[in-house]
Write a structure and sequence with these properties.
It is a single chain. This protein is mostly helical and 134 residues long. Helices cover 49% and strands 3% of the residues. Strands 1-2 form a two-stranded antiparallel ribbon. The model has no long low-confidence stretch (mean pLDDT 77).
Length: 134
C-alpha cells in the first residue's frame, strides 16, 4: 500500500512511501473499494470526507476499555501500540532493521532501535532455558 500526500495532509517525510500490509488486510481494502467504488478514501464518513485519526483512536479506546485490555503500564492501549507490535514482530522475524525503519518512516536507525527492548527481554527469558553442561 502507498501512503501519499493528499488534501493538505502529508505523511511522514512529506512524500509518498510504501508500507507493507498483510494479504488479509489488502483483501478487506479491495472488498471495500468494490463495495464503494466512488469512495475517495478507504475510510470515509457518510458525507464523503476522510475518517479522522481521532475517530479511529476513540473507537479503539472504547473497544479496548470495554474488553479490559490494558498496556504494559496499566494504562489503556493506544493505536500507537499497533506500530510497536508490528515493528517488534518484524524484528523478531528477522526482517532487517533498515527495512523496518523504512516501513515505519523513521529518519534514522536509532529511532527504530527503541523497539529492540522487547526483543532483548525475549532473548533474556530464552537464555534462561538453555541447559549448560559444566
Amino acid at each position: 500500500i502507498y501512503i501519499e500526500p493528499h488534501d493538505g495532509w502529508k505523511p511522514k517525510w512529506g512524500i509518498r512511501r510504501q508500507v507493507p500490509i498483510d494479504e488479509k488486510v489488502a483483501e478487506l481494502i479491495r472488498a471495500r473499494r468494490e463495495e464503494f467504488p466512488a469512495a475517495k478514501y478507504v475510510f470515509e464518513t457518510s458525507a464523503g470526507t476522510r475518517f479522522e485519526e481521532k475517530n479511529v483512536r476513540d473507537d479503539f479506546k472504547k473497544l479496548f476499555d470495554s474488553l479490559g485490555i490494558v498496556g504494559d503500564t496499566g494504562e489503556g492501549v493506544s493505536t500507537h501500540c499497533f506500530r510497536h507490535t508490528y515493528a517488534t514482530t518484524c524484528l523478531n522475524d528477522d526482517v532487517p532493521i533498515t527495512t523496518v525503519s523504512l516501513w515505519l518512516g523513521h529518519q534514522n536507525i536509532q529511532m527504530t532501535m527503541r523497539y529492540f527492548h522487547r526483543i532483548k527481554a525475549l532473548t533474556d527469558s530464552h537464555i534462561k532455558k538453555v541447559k549448560f553442561v559444566g
